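Exam review. A common question shows you a sequence with its structure tokens and asks you to describe the fold in words. Practice with the pair below. Do the first one on your own.
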Amino acid sequence: MSEQNKILLPQGFHDHLPPEASTEVKLNNIVLKTISLFGYELVRPAMMEFEESLDKDFTSDFFKVTDTISGKMMVIRNDITPQIARIVKDRYGIEAMTKTIRLAYTGQVIRRLGKGRFTERQLTQAGYELISESSAKRDAEILFIAAETYQNAGIKDFTIDFVYPKLTPILLKEKNFSEGETYEVIKLIETKDIQILRSNPKLADIVKIITISDSASDLPSAIQALKQLEKEISSKEVNQIFTRTREVLEILAKSVPSLKISLNLLEVMGFHYHNGLCYSFISGKNFDEIGRGGRYKISLNKENNLSAAGFTFLINSMLRSVNIEQRIDIKKLSYDDGFSKSKADREKNVTTIFE
């Protein structure tokens, strides 16, 4: 077919051709297999849902269509984590408050707008969600499994960027900043405009946090930076955040001590429904984000909330961080019998490390 007669796809959509298509499937299978070894059970949420059923805590920009049967408005998912929250709420309910739930997922999502350097709007996600008590051990579990999965997928050069979306609002609320002032400070933090931040005495703590955090590059230096922040910042609530983050890193240091770390705890962008420690994995090959996750809550009713944490692997981004020609052989994984083990046996892989 001539260039002139080619059939164009909508912006942000493209076909996956050989060998890219087979590599994507292999990557996805490696992700799911590794997750399964730690007791996470696979669910497959629906591609579309009624708009009226969406949890207001997770709402975002969606493609919308009208259901030809009911006449109701439907949305096409742009993230699977909110669907896991709905499934937990609908299928487990109050029972989830007394038991640990580990769920895994995979599927495609559709974005209304492309993000970052790449304009893709149809993406493959895979990931896992842990519904349990909020603790440093549980956060470390999420991070350990993510790091292990990237290693199995052949992506060994990455940095984990730690973020705490609620930290900046807490700091500015204590200084009595207005909503408009808070928005302006957040923009300055995102652009790292340290000179303007230094010019406002009320932002001295924020300048300290940025300056000290910049010294982190690996687990030992990140732990040391957090210890210093605990001494330098007087706010009790803020110090609890530093302590919790340090405890997570100290647990990781016992099992995966060679991790590269960066601390950008004041960042808020991109984690709109999270309320605790969050993390973004950045590829050392092209500085692309290859996965992200963090802690959030699931509202069961007016009185009861569940604490949850999870991680999403961005398969499209992972494809750009591996050699398309390299052969990814699932059979060579050290966990070859993972799928055949019982759920209880598989959970021992994670409880042995973190309990």
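Now try the second one, then compare your answer with the model answer below.
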Amino acid sequence: MDRRVSAAARTPFPANWTARVLWTALALYVLYACGILDVSWDRFVRGLDNGGRFLRRMFPPDLSAQKLDLLRVGMLESMQIAVLSTAAGIVLSLPLGLLAARNLMPGWVSWTARGAIALCRSFHPVITAILFVKAVGFGALAGVLALIVASMGFISKLFAEAIEEMSLRQVEAVRATGAGFFNVLVMGVFPQVIARFIGFCVYQLDSNLRNSTMVGIVGGGGIGATLFTAYQRFDYDFVLTILLAIIAVIMVAEVVSAQLRKAFQ
């Protein structure tokens, strides 16, 4: 016994051989994957040179009246896509998140709802947009539908988790008064989670504003379509103008969303 204590005292930080083996295996797999994917330092250096020439062709940005008009139309459509998809996603996520809460619903209901949420979260919005473009054709409708699916996957999952983390004492107190299910939701559930739900919605609006620029590249409308067309035409100075406009809009959206989250906390 004394020998084991003295040995432990001499090695206060014993070697974690499991962690060492895992890190070594990870390093070996990274080297193996780099070899298969042709990831090399030479390609990276050549890419820097090509990227430098590409950036030089983008300056100065094109600020002609015709291009600014195209930019205005595309950005306006992207913002409309973001607002519409977020509003519809919030309306659909509210009941879906409630059904997915395991502390409020029977097991078969919550797991069915969680399966639907997992399905919404399974694909990137660009992939979903490709499917909707095939279904409804090119244009803003495909982008709106794709971002609605993405919004449902994000908001409903976090809303369900927020409900599961709340205190059930207030819910039980409302039930003790003989209140019905909807009164329990209004008086016992929503007051505890509404602030977090609003925060999720504001964040999703910010996220949809960014994603609306991506779905347009595959035909979902918005500024992404204008950006893709400019790339195809090698109109790189207009590409820079679009990128700067997207950055400006996203920065403004970050400030506005942060202020909204503070207002509802």
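Model answer, second protein: The mean pLDDT is 84. The two ends are 56 Å apart (CA to CA). Full marks require stating both points clearly.
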